[in-house]
Design a protein that fits this description.
The chain is an all-alpha fold. It has one domain. Helices cover 68% and strands 0% of the residues. The protein is globular. The N terminus is likely disordered.
């Protein structure tokens, strides 16, 4: 949820379809949190019931965009730069994140719920592990950022290992294997930690801790995004055949997500816990495929509002709970009902304004610093290459010629 909006594979045109999806994702998350954590108009809870899946859409987008960058470098040079990759991720993600962490720790009145997790968990991006909403409910939405950071660390290391062992061409089995492993892990966690407490009043907290927030249970969306990136980069002819059905992919994604909606209607059930997340990820994966297909209406349409909101989506995600909590408390003092539509619209407007300020003051400043650092040539060679490859590196990894 923290990649540059609409970014395509390096060297290609901006994909405006991804701006639409990033706007959809942040809208879903905002509606869900507003309608479930704060006083709200009744319609926000109804419409936003499935809004928790906005995070899964962010996961698919992140998996696609980050893997695309790495895969494009591998296809072009048979390697990639650790320095460049991690510098880009650090300066894009960490500065605004730490600004928000500092606000939460320095100003307790912005806390929307119970206490924060220990500071070291935010510093190490491990806050999602063992997260108990009953005692650490404030800034709980950092859990998804933690999973993404863990993914950003593991993906290049796995890719490096495959390149070093010269088995990248034979690693097509790895993504399906990891996807299937997710089923096994969720079944184990559900039967071991959740099922014994189904009759308890606080089973919801156990379910969140062991199913919803646990990294190993929530990799489906990221894996779906990586799979799309692999298809586009390493199987271009297969992708081109699929991309002819851009609008059909969108319709299919809605059908899959409709099925996921009904399966997940009882969130703490076995079916929702084991099959719900992968089904949601497949649905959004199809939607992302549609958005990058030139035949799709998502690809063809350019809307300034979605481009702007996509650019601000990371900052909105970081600050929206602070804004809603503080704005509702302060605006209620001047007679605006917390559960009114007027309050909702004001909270949306203030969240966007706050995100714009964050983008101008923090994000852009550090991105400029990042660019200056990247322009400097590092000492030594930090580029990783395969060995023994014959012919053009890109040809080594593309094998679905018609």
């Amino acid at each position: 949820m923290n990649n540059q909006a609409g970014q395509a594979i390096p060297g290609t045109a901006r994909l405006f379809g991804l701006d639409h999806l990033r706007t959809l994702a942040i809208g879903l998350v905002f509606l869900y949190h507003y309608g479930h954590l704060f006083p709200h108009p009744a319609w926000t809870a109804t419409i936003g019931k499935f809004g928790w899946t906005g995070v899964d859409l962010f996961f698919v987008l992140s998996g696609y965009l980050i893997a695309s960058q790495l895969f494009a470098s591998v296809a072009k040079t048979a390697g990639f730069s650790f320095r460049q990759f991690f510098l880009k991720r650090f300066f894009r993600i960490v500065p605004p994140y730490w600004v928000v962490v500092a606000i939460y720790f320095c100003f307790p009145f912005v806390h929307e719920r119970e206490a924060l997790a220990p500071l070291w968990k935010y510093a190490t991006f491990t806050q999602n592990l063992g997260l108990d909403l009953r005692t650490q409910g404030t800034f709980s939405h950092a859990w998804s950022l933690c999973i993404e950071e863990q993914f950003y660390l593991l993906l290049p290391l796995i890719l490096l290992a495959l390149i070093y062992c010269k088995v990248l061409k034979k690693s097509g089995w790895l993504l399906p294997a990891l996807f299937l492993a997710g089923f096994a892990i969720r079944i184990y966690c559900y039967q071991t930690f959740v099922a014994p407490h189904l009759e308890d009043d606080e089973v919801w907290a156990i379910w969140y801790k062991w199913i919803y927030y646990l990294t190993a249970c929530r990799l489906d969306g990221l894996l779906a995004g990586v799979s799309i990136a692999a298809l586009v980069q390493f199987r271009p002819f297969s992708y081109q055949r699929i991309a002819k059905w851009g609008n059909g992919l969108f319709v299919l994604s809605l059908l899959v997500l409709t099925g996921a909606y009904y399966i997940c209607s009882e969130e703490e059930s076995f079916g929702a816990s084991v099959f719900g997340f992968p089904l949601v990820s497949i649905g959004y994966g199809l939607m992302v495929l549609s958005a990058i297909s030139p035949t799709s209406f998502l690809y063809k349409s350019k809307l300034p509002v979605t481009s702007t909101l996509a650019l601000l989506s990371y900052a909105i995600y970081l600050i929206h709970k602070i804004v809603i909590h503080v704005a509702q408390d302060q605006l209620a003092k001047v007679g605006i009902a917390k559960n009114s539509n007027r309050m909702f619209l004001l909270c949306v407007a203030i969240s966007v304004a706050g995100a714009l300020l964050m983008n101008k003051v923090v994000e852009k400043s550090f991105l400029k610093l990042r660019d200056r650092i990247l322009r400097k040539k590092p000492s030594g060679n930090n580029q990783l290459y395969t060995t023994g490859a014959k012919g053009a590196p890109g040809a080594l990894y593309t094998s679905d010629k018609p």
